Structures are given as structure tokens and as C-alpha cells.
Amino acid sequence: MAKSGPCLGTVINPDTGAPLIVNDERVLASEFEKIRRSEIIGDGTDDQGKNRCSMYSPLWQADGGCIRRFALLEFIGRYMPDFFDYGIADEVHELKGDTAPGKALGTLARSVDRIAVLTGTLMGGYADDLFNVLYRLEPHKMVTEGYEWGESGVRNFSESYGVLERVTIIASEENACSKGKATKQVKRKPGASPMLFGKFLMELGAFVSLEDISSELPAHREEVIGVDMDEPLAKAYADLEKQIKEPFEEHRGNHSVISTALNAVLAYPDRPYGFGDLIGTEYDLELH
User: Fold this and answer.
1) Which end of the chain, N or C, is surrounded by fewer C-beta atoms within 10 Å?
2) Span 74-109, pLDDT tens digits
3) How far apart (Å, rounded) are the C-alpha atoms in residues 38 and 30?
4) Is the predicted pLDDT of residue 199 greater than 80, yes or no?
5) Smallest Cα–Cα separation from 6: which of 15, 19, 16?
6) What is the pLDDT of residues 150-194, one digit of tens each?
7) For the chain, which residues make up each domain, given as ranges?
8) How many CA atoms lie within 13 A of 275 on its CB side?
9) So what's the pLDDT on residue 188?
10) Sign of the torsion formed by the C-alpha atoms of 218, 213, 87 and 123
11) pLDDT-based confidence at residue 20 (cuts at 50, 70, 90)
């Protein structure tokens, strides 16, 4: 149906973009249910002798006989809300945004009895980094504290537990007989109030440092294990090494040649292609 323009209120054929004409009159949206939903494209004088048929707009609908794709957490939230007892979400600081992964955290928290979230970086320096995470984990408490979901709730949360800088700029020029113009700006600054920890995090989180668990960790050991190259790669590597030795003898002491060759022989076993010509800088011994 046309919602603006000269065809306002009439039915539009989506295949042609033209108003639907029946009995030399445009069909209004209010009359659309009374007629057959089709029209013949072209008039009777065009393409004489060629078969023409009524053009119908396709009616699209889901095929119920096929397998439907479903996001895993969406399926759990819709059909298995009480199936799992525990849920674990790692790197929860990456789920603070109003994004699909962030909303999935809320679905997971709503679908399990207990949820444990893990992170090594709880905040990015700002108090409101925790707003969405807390709202998805403890929505009842956030509502009880008077914070609503959305920008207004984030703003109130930042005013309570964050650091805001209010800047007022007063232009005093030419205001001898009038009030000066004042411009106010509110900027978000890094920092968080200690009350945020006592109000929300103390009863919700457990803070563990590396020293607390170091005694239970296995001993750290680094061991380099060499792996022999396959025969084709070893032969190509030997050819490259032979070609590199010749510039070494010719440009002895030239550090640019040494660094270029060293990078090549170190990278070649992992990526033996796409190097092209190896270029160094030739120095004039009289000038250097």
C-alpha cells in the first residue's frame, strides 16, 4: 500500500511498482479484500499472439518441513529454561555491551539456577562498565535500587558510583546589559566509587589473585622441541641459505643485509612462499 505521494492509499503491485487497476479504477487499500489479488501486465494491443498470464505477488512463508536454524542460547532460553543447574561465562567483561553476546549472557543467567562469571578485567576504568553485567546477573536488585534498563539507568548509575566532570563555560563578552551565555557539559571520567564494591560486588563476587592459587598450580617449565623439516622444504631451505651466503661474502659487515637475511631464514620454514627479492642497503665505504 502506498503511504505517500500521488498514489496515497492505493494498492501497489510490488512486481511493477504501479497502482493496481481494476475496471479502469485504482484499488484502494480498504477495498483490497473484495477483489482477486492479481492483474495482467500490459494491454491487449501489445505482443499480439503471445501468451500472457495473471501476475501474482509471491506469498512467502516459512517451510515447516525443514530444519530451522536456532541460536543455541535462544533455544535454551525458550525451550529449556529449567534444564541446567549451573552456567559458566568466561571473559564476562566482553559481554558488557548491548550486543548479541551480551544479551546471550542475560538469557543464560535467566535459564539456569546458578551462574558463575569469570574475568581478569572486571572494569575498563569506568563504573558504568558494570551496569549491563549487573543488570543481567541481578536484575531484581538493580530494579530495587531504582535503576531502569537503558541510557537513563546508565546515567543515574554513573552519577551514583562513577566520576562525572561538569564543565560550565560562561561567555561574558557583550553582556553588560544582559546575562552571559552559559554552556554546560558533562563528561565521563575514569574512576569508580568504593560504594560500588560494597553495594553490589562484595556479596556477588569472589576476588582471587595469582598468589592465592600459585601453590596449587603445576610447576612451570619451558622446553623447546625441534622438528625436522620435510625433504622438499629442507631442500628449498638449503637453496635459500646458499643464495643468502653469497651476499654475506660480498657485503661483509653490512648490517642491513644481515637483518634482511636473518628475517628470511627464520620465517621461511613457517611460510615458504611470497618472499620475492631480498633487498638490503648498499653503503659507500667512503661516506660511512
Assistant:
1) C
2) 889 889 988 999 999 999 988 888 888 889 999 999
3) 16
4) yes
5) 19
6) 888 888 898 888 888 888 877 666 566 666 677 778 888 888 888
7) 1-62, 72-201, 229-288
8) 21
9) 82
10) negative
11) confident
Residue type, 232: P
Residue 54, pLDDT above cutoff 80: no
Q: Is 96 exposed, middle or buried (0-12, 13-18, 19+ CB in 10 A)?
A: buried
- C-alpha span between 246 and 243 (Å, rounded): 6
Q: Which three cell numbers stand for residue 207?
A: 576476588
What's the chain look like in SS3?
Answer: CCCCCCCCCECECCCCCCECEECCEECEHHHHHHCCCCEECCCCCCCCCCCCCEECCCCCCCCCCCCCCCCHHHHHHHHCCCCCCEEEECCHHHHCCCCHHHHHHHHHHHHCCEEEECCCCCCCCEHHHHHHHHHHHCHHHHHHCCCCCCHHHHHHHHHHHEEEEEEEEEECCCCCCCCCEEEEEEEEEEEECHHHHHHHHCCCCCCCCHHHHHHHCCCCCCCCCCCCCCHHHHHHHHHHHHHHHHHHHHCCCCHHHHHHHHHHHHHCCCCCCCCCCCCCCCCCCCCC
